[in-house]
Amino acid sequence: MAASCCTNMSAVLPSGNVGISSTSFHKKSRSKLASIPGTRPSVQNGQLLVSTGVPSLDYVIGGGLAVGTLLLIEEDQYDGYSHVLFKYFLAEGAVCGHSIFVASAREHPGDILQNLPAPLLDDVVNAETEEEIVNINQSVREHQDSMKIAWRYQNLPKMQTSLASSSRFGHYFDVSKSMSPEMLYSVSCHNFYPGNEVSLDSVPMIGNKNTVYMKLLQSIQRVIRNEGFDGACPQKKQKNILRIGIRSLGSALWGDDICYQDNPEHVHSLTMFLYALRGLLRTSLTVCIITVPAHLIQNKAIMSRIVKLSDTVVGLESFNCSEKRTNPLYKDYHEGLLHVYQIPRLNSLMCDVSEAKDLAFKLKRKLFTIENLYL
């Protein structure tokens, strides 16, 4: 009986493989992320990330911007520093070879692309970084010598800036120089200017929908489908990222009235656009940055809905014409403060929250940096 069992078992096994396990279970291999220049997987949730163009901002928001998400920047009152971040985002895309879509009602998108900052060489970056770190450490030592640091700062790093990072994810740019035309010629650029689409003196409405927003959404959708960024249709050529930048959305220049009326006539026009745009982003290899004049929006309920329809939300508080500029507590931070209002939860139950809560930004000489705020 035992002999017959052995005979039957040997008949099941392939010839020459007697004694080798014939189990049908195999080790499940991880799915490989798309290999796209200028991207890397998140160490927290495996989401594909791109750089904002400011490495210190990447550090603050959890490593970078996740593909398929929207970054909302609440503009400072003078729209100077938010525009700098806007151009850094586009310049990073140009350096990485990503496709670019620019929409602006204030300045023609072509002029924005012509004035993108030039990338810094590695040796220049290293020199600027070393000098910056020396100045930072010296400033911290002066504070420690002159007064005892509050208990909530004792466990923080000396001064965390992503400039000290050796990672090549993200680049540094010189705001005093413009990017060479040759670099831009090699990048696929698309633009949307409302003045070319419809007269803003009398923006027509269709069922509480701003037609300018509708045309903008259709233009973005057309680029996504025609250029092969739609996730539903596999790209025939090498995979790439589409970077979308929309400046001062919701301002009067877009034909919207939320910035000068407490009870705007078409209150849901912008939020409906953001809802549809977010759906496009989720199903495509795209990432979007939008600046909004939050300080001009009269109805705070509308601003609250705009924030909820975004993924990552940061705000800039400029010290220009502010009492904080002359306040001795902020003597080392002449530009302003950075507020992180929202970080997305992607493929996880919790979001990656930065250890530093008090942040300030500086724009000196060639670099835009974000640092911990020490009072």
TrEMBL record:
Keywords: Cytoplasm, Nucleus, tRNA processing. It comes from the Eukaryota. Pathway: tRNA modification; 5-methoxycarbonylmethyl-2-thiouridine-tRNA biosynthesis. One of its GO terms (biological process) is tRNA wobble uridine modification. Gene3D superfamilies: P-loop containing nucleotide triphosphate hydrolases (3.40.50.300). It is found in: Cytoplasm; Nucleus. Transmembrane segments: none annotated. GO terms for cellular component: cytoplasm; elongator holoenzyme complex; transcription elongation factor complex. Component of the elongator complex which is required for multiple tRNA modifications, including mcm5U (5-methoxycarbonylmethyl uridine), mcm5s2U (5-methoxycarbonylmethyl-2-thiouridine), and ncm5U (5-carbamoylmethyl uridine). The elongator complex catalyzes the formation of carboxymethyluridine in the wobble base at position 34 in tRNAs. Belongs to the ELP4 family. PANTHER family: ELONGATOR COMPLEX PROTEIN 4, PAX6 NEIGHBOR PROTEIN PAXNEB. This is Elongator complex protein 4.
